[in-house]
Amino acid sequence: MLYIVTILTVLIVLARNKRRQQRICDSKRRLNGKTALVTGGTAGMGLEIATDLAARGARVIVACPFLEEGNQAEKTIISTTGNENVKFILLDLSSFKSVRQFAAIIKSESRLDILVNNAGIGNSTEALTADGMNFIMQVNYYGHFLLTILLLPLMKKSGSPADPARIINTTSMLHHFGVYNLTKEQTGKHNFLRRNRFYATSKLCTALFSRELTRTLDSTKVVANTVDPGIVGTGIFYSLGGVAGFLAKVLFLSLFSSPWEGAQTAIHLAVDEEAGKVSGKLFRNCEIAGNSSAISSNQTAKQLWDDSVKMVKLSDTEMIEWLAVA
User: Fold this and answer.
1) Which residues have C-beta within 8 Å of that of residue 202, sequence separation ≥ 6?
2) Is the pLDDT confidence value at 295 over 90?
3) Whether 314 contacts 143, CB under 8 Å
4) Cβ partners under 8 Å of residue 65, min gap 6
5) Distance in angstroms (rounded) separating the CA atoms of residues 309 and 96
6) Residue positions annotated with a catalytic role
7) In the prediction, which pLDDT does 191 show?
8) By three-state DSSP, how is residue 88 classified?
9) Adjacency order of strands within the sheet including 86-90
10) pLDDT computed for residue 5 by the predictor
11) Residue spans of beta strands (DSSP E) within 213-277
């Protein structure tokens, strides 16, 4: 009982501090003529981000692997904002085939100015994907890595030095507990604790990706930054399963950020003029935050990049397209 009381006390203190420090995006910038893509843009923070961008006049594409949820989100965003230029497209990040099919559809767009890699899962009972990869790692990181690489040519075409296209990768404060090790990621049976370690590692990789992408691109036409939204009460906690998942969501939603609050820093990165002038940075609470030691290693970031290119099996054509952008 003392252990539970101690945990609750710490959570309440953290929640009070968070409430005092909570900031919202105050930019009034319009996005007419721009196109934005939000993965996981059909629920939770992703839906809030997509709705905000649509309200600013952007063409918004939302993606998720659930047909009914996606169609409903499209209708909700349109009815909420009055912007009918909103489209749902099916995307399963646990399948590289699906990612490539989705990217082929997006490439037919005339432009892509904002890419918000927001989709993610927490705990999961599935160990490996059809591609033979850890399920959490592929959905949260490798799927987004491949998608971003495939869409970069269109983003570079859309951006300019005065107004670069923006890539926004969503990490988590749990990235501090991640440890990148390619061999351990892909092997072994995964119990509850190990699966949550995979979540932390996937978020560590996400932050490292933004830094190495910035170094590799060497372009003023596309910027890539990472957002840490803090602790947000969303449906991701249902992945804990049963009563535990329900109680976790209620607890975190009560004590910490709502999805709307959690979405504010990603929105800031998407629209704020000053945020568009930097790349490879970690943002928290609508401002640049210092990089943790976990994401400060250039060597680890480079190793992750090289491993990722191999893991997603870029074709010769995809590699040529990428090298033309880099």
Assistant:
1) 120, 136, 137, 139, 140, 141, 178
2) no
3) no
4) 90, 91, 92, 93, 94, 98
5) 13
6) 199
7) 46
8) strand
9) 86-90, 59-64, 35-39, 114-117, 165-170, 222-228, 282-284, 287-289
10) 46
11) 222-228
Question: In whole angstroms, what separates CA 318 from the centre of its chain?
Answer: 22
Per DSSP, which regions of the chain are E strands?
A: 35-39, 59-64, 86-90, 114-117, 165-170, 222-228, 282-284, 287-289
Residue-wise pLDDT for 87-145, tens only, equals: 999 999 999 999 999 999 999 999 999 999 999 987 655 578 999 998 999 999 999 99
Homologous superfamily of 31-80+89-325 in CATH?
NAD(P)-binding Rossmann-like Domain (3.40.50.720)
Residues 6+ apart with CB under 8 A from 212: 301, 302, 304, 305
Percent of the chain with pLDDT over 90: 59
d(CA 140, CA 122): 9
Task: Quickly list H helices, 91-186.
Answer: 96-106, 135-137, 143-158, 182-186
Q: Does residue 284 sit in helix, strand or coil?
A: strand
Residue with the larger pLDDT of the pair 153 and 200: 153
Residues present in the chain in total:
326
DSSP codes of every residue in 6-38: HHHHHHHHHHHHHHHH----------TT-EEEE
Taking the domains of the chain in order of start, what are their residue ranges?
Answer: 31-80+89-325
Amino acid at 126: E
**What whole-number distance in Å separates Cα of residue 209 and Cα of residue 274?**
21
**Residue 175, pLDDT above cutoff 90:** no
Residues 6+ apart with CB under 8 A from 146: 96, 99, 100, 103, 312, 314
Predicted TM-score (pTM) of the model is: 0.86
| The token pair that represents 96 in the structure block | 């590289």
